[in-house]
């Protein structure tokens, strides 16, 4: 490690994406209206934009799907046999996002049955032990101050990796308010330690308005409840539903509601979705995104950067990136944990912190969400810590601001020299940011090619200039102090 080279640095190239130096991204593009599958090309716009029409014409049976995209014989068999194990429903709008000639299309993988669901690692029906933490039917109380309410088994589109397949396989109507619904609300009312509830399913925005209003009004009236989160994929799979002002009126009336939605791929961020999210936000409903890390769908840095940037453009905050749960039929979607760490490493520092989700594993046996991230804390002593940033710069940081205790000088280097107070920073060779700083200095006519950094502090007692940490820990001009970041 040493001062940056004066030559222009070479950026790491991310496959399938244009990448420029220092992680800067190309200009954003505006989502375009979704092109339709040819079978729906002549549907009048009034029908196409009507959520009732979209729901009524959703692909729900194997014979429908086999007529819409090409399949191998094995895939046809899988579609027919998997129908009994997990429901199928894909609105024409969402189906039209599929590249029907690509069997590995990421939208298709999420929505269309695959033979891979019948092979690979076995999963569990309830991998998170939600039912075991259920004091009343439909409600899970795991965290001290939060509860999950499963309010319906119906979804607008049944994701092939869903962790709650066991609930969505129930048949029959839940249209009226049941005694189980009442018991869930009563449980929340009787437990003042609960301040946050997640209204989920299935998808609660598929509920009849009267039943949705029951949950919203009853929960909103509980004084100790601060937050009501609606877990829904409607903005992604059926954005036309959010053209209904009666639905939006119910959600807006609470004053406590947040929306948790579920974009997994940048191609899902369409002009229709943008409009749906705008309508939610205009009603005072903040939107967070829960993505799932899925092999073949979004398990690349290029895709995740594109997704997070697309979400920021429509003012949806990337909140969580979940490791795929070990649910039945989803083994082929699961990735190593290191893939998630790699992705977070490539997001932090390269896009706005607003766009960096928390990568979490939902632990088995009801252990809850465990956050994982790259290691930025490298070492520590009583009075200092050694940290690294996204560039690989390694710094000695004094958290209390007090001078470190004087110690006997020991010949050492690298991270050890930072801990011993013999250096302040190790800078990777070819750092693009400091190369820009050098270029600005040259343009301003400064002989050393660096902008003014202020007075140099005293050099530490380390052996500067001998190829050890004292020499490497410079700002690129031999002054031996930490550059302004």
TrEMBL record:
Keywords: 4Fe-4S, Iron, Iron-sulfur, Isomerase, Metal-binding, Pyridoxal phosphate, S-adenosyl-L-methionine. InterPro entries: Aldolase_TIM, LAM_C_dom, Lys_aminomutase/Glu_NH3_mut, rSAM, rSAM_sf. SUPFAM superfamilies: Radical SAM enzymes. One of its GO terms (molecular function) is isomerase activity. Residues 1-38, 117-137, 442-485 are annotated as: Disordered. Residues 122-132 have a biased composition (Acidic residues). It holds the Pfam family Radical_SAM. CDD domains: Radical_SAM. Residues 141-357 form the Radical SAM core domain. Belongs to the radical SAM superfamily. KamA family. This is KamA family protein. It comes from Singulisphaera acidiphila (strain ATCC BAA-1392 / DSM 18658 / VKM B-2454 / MOB10). The lineage of its organism: Bacteria, Pseudomonadati, Planctomycetota, Planctomycetia, Isosphaerales.
């Amino acid at each position: 490690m040493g001062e940056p080279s004066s030559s222009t640095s070479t950026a790491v190239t991310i496959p399938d994406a244009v990448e420029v130096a220092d992680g800067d991204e190309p200009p954003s593009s505006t989502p375009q209206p979704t092109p339709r599958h040819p079978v729906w090309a002549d549907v009048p716009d009034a029908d196409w934009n009507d959520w009732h029409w979209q729901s009524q014409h959703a692909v729900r049976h194997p014979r429908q799907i086999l007529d819409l995209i090409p399949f191998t014989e094995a895939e046809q068999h899988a579609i027919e046999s998997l129908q009994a194990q997990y429901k199928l429903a894909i609105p024409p709008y969402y189906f039209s996002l599929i590249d029907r000639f690509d069997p590995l299309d990421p939208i298709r993988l999420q929505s269309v049955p695959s033979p891979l669901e019948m092979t690979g690692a076995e999963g569990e029906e309830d991998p998170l032990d939600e039912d075991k933490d259920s004091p009343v039917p439909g409600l899970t109380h795991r965290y001290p101050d939060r509860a999950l309410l499963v309010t319906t088994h119906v979804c607008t589109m049944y994701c092939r990796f869903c962790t709650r397949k066991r609930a969505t396989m129930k048949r029959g109507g839940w249209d009226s308010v049941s005694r189980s619904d009442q018991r869930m609300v009563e449980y929340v009312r009787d437990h003042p330690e609960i301040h946050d509830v997640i209204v989920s399913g299935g998808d609660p925005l598929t509920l009849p308005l009267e039943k949705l209003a029951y949950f919203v009004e009853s929960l909103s009236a509980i004084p100790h409840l601060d937050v009501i989160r609606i877990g829904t994929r409607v903005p992604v799979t059926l954005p036309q539903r959010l053209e209904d002002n009666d639905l939006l009126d119910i959600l807006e009336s609470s004053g406590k509601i947040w929306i948790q939605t579920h974009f997994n791929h940048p191609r899902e961020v369409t002009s229709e979705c943008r409009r749906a999210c705008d309508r939610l936000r205009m009603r005072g409903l903040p939107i967070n995104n829960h993505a799932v890390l899925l092999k073949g769908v979004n398990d690349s840095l290029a895709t995740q950067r594109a997704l997070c940037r697309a979400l920021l453009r429509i003012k949806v905050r990337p909140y969580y990136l979940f490791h795929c749960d070990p649910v039945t039929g989803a083994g082929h979607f699961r990735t190593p944990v290191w893939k998630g760490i790699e992705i977070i490493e490539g997001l932090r520092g390269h896009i706005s912190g607003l766009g960096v989700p928390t990568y979490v594993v939902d632990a088995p046996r009801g252990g809850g969400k465990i956050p994982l991230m790259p290691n930025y804390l490298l070492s520590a002593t009583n009075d200092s810590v050694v940290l690294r940033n996204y560039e690989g710069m390694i710094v000695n940081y004094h958290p209390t601001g007090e001078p470190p205790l004087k110690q006997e000088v020991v010949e050492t280097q690298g991270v050890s020299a930072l801990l011993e107070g013999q250096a302040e920073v190790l800078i990777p060779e070819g750092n693009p940011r400091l190369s820009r700083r050098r270029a600005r200095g040259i343009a301003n006519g400064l002989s050393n090619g660096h902008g003014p950094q202020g007075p140099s502090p005293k050099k530490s007692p380390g052996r500067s200039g001998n190829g050890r940490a004292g020499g490497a820990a410079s700002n690129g001009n031999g002054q031996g102090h930490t550059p302004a970041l």
